[in-house]
Design goal:
The chain is mainly alpha-helical. The chain folds into three domains: 47 residues; 95 residues, Up-down Bundle (Receptor-associated Protein), CATH 1.20.81.30; 230 residues, no CATH class. The protein contains 17 helices and three strands. The chain has a three-stranded antiparallel beta sheet with strand order 2-1-3. Strand 1 and strand 2 form a beta hairpin. Helix 4 packs antiparallel against helix 9, helix 12 packs antiparallel against helix 13 and helix 12 packs antiparallel against helix 17. It is flat, with a radius of gyration of 31 Å.
Length: 414
């Protein structure tokens, strides 16, 4: 059984050193806590003699850490709430993370929290430990935690992060909810069309051929489409999958992502939703950072990486380069002619009055309301459009078949 050497502190602040033989490091930490001590460092002396093996193990551990699934927004919000609640109750950071490890059921979250706890015990700061998981903790999160460490108000900073990510989650849910009903209409209409083209129309084709009469042009066109779908449907499906895959791959590249984001800012209905969401996120993120002591230039850099639209991110980067005194934001943003004058004017008023955080809060609320209105307009326009398109497709199929039937029955002599 491996032997672990530990250094800890007692409740009276005295430094205590010792050794224990346990199966692994976690068991050693549990043993130290049962003694009523606070662990400072825990190491395995035998590991120092096997440096190559240690490096290989560290490499494998790093590989496992990099391959671990990233925390989703909901998981990140839950983690932040749990840490905030425990810290606000008076628990230390090390005890907080140790408590969370005993209540984690998801393997990826357990691995993440355990690693954070071990880093804290080894003497690392929380922000430094979080920075090693960039896929789970974005720069905004790490910078906020670093500001909380500097100010000594970690619980307050985490409460601000909870409010921020709750609003981000609400904005995403609004957009997703707006797309559910049109998506259902589209899927049902598509399935109806495929059923008609692959099962209904071929039965009529057999009847029409047996009668041998001439058919109207719409009926011939419908029969040709049905035959094409029956013979080459698998190829069309493969081509569609290939196009989707190629499109997704192209959008991951900087040029493709920039093209798509620029198109979003030009589409009639989409652009209002995209810009309102981006402006609200810009103001909300910036006010959270500035309120917690993050410098203006660093805050703009973080907002640039989290705004969600590459065109707006490029404009924020250029504005950051134009900021010379580190305090004035409205002028450089207005010079780019992309951010609306209302937003930059409200920023300018906040800078003149010395209440920039208040101005950013007003901007966030203003564009949150605009996002709600734009989503309602979008759904109000999209739903009848989808219904109309599906009605036209189904109506074309029905009318094409009925025209052929009427032509045949009109030629019969009773």
């Amino acid at each position: 059984m491996p032997k672990f050497v530990y250094t800890a502190r007692s409740n009276g602040g005295e430094r205590v050193a010792g050794a224990v033989e346990v199966p692994d490091r976690r068991a050693a930490l549990q043993y130290i806590e049962r003694l009523g001590l606070v662990p400072i460092a825990v190491s395995e002396p035998a590991a120092a003699a096997a440096a190559p093996a240690h490096r290989a193990g560290a490499w494998r551990a790093g590989l496992r850490r990099r391959s671990a699934p990233r925390l989703k927004l909901r998981d990140l919000l839950l983690f932040t709430r749990e840490v905030h609640d425990l810290l606000a109750s008076g628990m230390t950071l090390g005890d907080t993370l140790n408590t969370l490890t005993r209540h984690q059921t998801h393997q990826s979250r357990l691995q993440l929290v355990t690693t954070l706890r071990d880093k804290i015990i080894e003497g690392s700061s929380l922000s430094g430990a979080l920075a090693q998981w960039p896929d789970s903790f974005p720069p905004l999160y790490v910078s906020m935690v670093r500001a909380g460490e500097a100010s000594g108000d970690m619980a307050g900073v985490l409460a601000g992060l909870c409010r921020h990510y709750e609003r981000v989650s609400e904005a995403r849910e609004k957009v997703l909810m707006a797309m559910i009903y049109p998506a259902i209409i589209f899927i049902v209409g598509l399935l109806t069309m495929l059923f008609a083209m692959m099962f209904v129309v071929p039965r009529f084709v057999v009847v029409f051929r047996d009668l041998g009469s001439s058919l109207p042009v719409p009926t011939l066109l419908l029969m040709g489409l049905s035959n094409l779908l029956m013979r080459w449907g698998w190829l069309l499906m493969l081509a569609t999958i290939a196009l989707v895959w190629l499109g997704r791959r192209a959008l991951r590249r900087p040029a493709g992502r920039r093209w798509w984001h620029r198109a979003q800012l030009r589409l009639p209905l989409i652009r209002h939703i995209v810009t309102a969401n981006a402006y609200a996120h810009f103001a909300r993120t910036l006010v959270v950072l500035l309120s917690n002591g993050v410098p203006v230039l660093q805050a703009l850099e973080i907002v640039e990486n989290t705004v969600g639209n590459q065109i707006l991110a490029d404009e924020i980067r250029e504005a950051r380069d134009r900021v010379t005194d580190g305090t004035t934001i409205s002028g450089p943003l207005a010079a780019g002619k992309i951010f609306p004058p209302l937003l930059t004017d409200m920023l300018a008023v906040g800078e003149k009055t010395g209440d920039l955080s208040g101005a950013l809060g007003h901007i966030a609320r203003r564009y949150d309301g605009e996002l709600d209105r734009n989503i309602k307009i979008f759904t109000a326009v999209l739903e009848p459009m989808m219904i109309l398109i599906m009605a036209v497709v189904v109506g074309f199929i029905a009318i094409s078949l009925l025209l052929a039937v009427f032509d045949m029955t009109s030629g019969l002599k009773v």
